[in-house]
Amino acid sequence: MTASKQDRFDLVIFDCDGVLVDSERIANRVFARVLEEECGLRLSLEQMFSYFVGHSQAQCLAIIEEMTGAPPPPGLGGRYRNEINRELAESVVAVNGIEAVLAAIDTPYCVASGGSHEKMQTTLGKTGLIKYFGGKLFSVSEVARAKPFPDVYLHAARSMGVDNPEKCLVIEDSPVGVSGAVAAQMAVFGYSELMSADKLLAAGAHLTFDRMDELPGEILRYTRV
Asked: Model's pTM, two decimal places?
């Protein structure tokens, strides 16, 4: 079964990194430097986005092992987490237009992130967006399986009191996240400001948009009979 158009959604579920906060460029630039210094891997920002965006830290480490043919160096995970969080705490900004979008959407909303609660507190705190999401932050650390499995989306919906996944709309910016939302039988819009729209559509996004201020209008058009 696939998510069907609704007269209206009961819940909008936002990914965090790349959707609410402009963190992906920062995180992947730092991660690329760490990988070159620790593993000898020289990857462009485009390659970093292709390989790693949307994956959990554990999944990223598994990808590195597959690339190099050897387990990642001891301490790589800790350095990855600490350096990225430090840089985000200093430099991250909100995605352009997101506060106006949150004000314009009259549907309840929450966050379902592939990152940790610590990371969300860092990025949403630095950008001032944390005030919109009190008690509405959900992380893959709370569920058995990370994206692209549907666990975190279903957990977020249940926690917000929505039992029917087809009444949920997910906003994602990675093919991994889109695949998870589709697996949850939710509608999903792909935010393509940084990620290829074709990749998001291939993962199952119902539509894509590349400017965050377009989102309220896209929701209205999608749900209009």
From this structure: 0.86
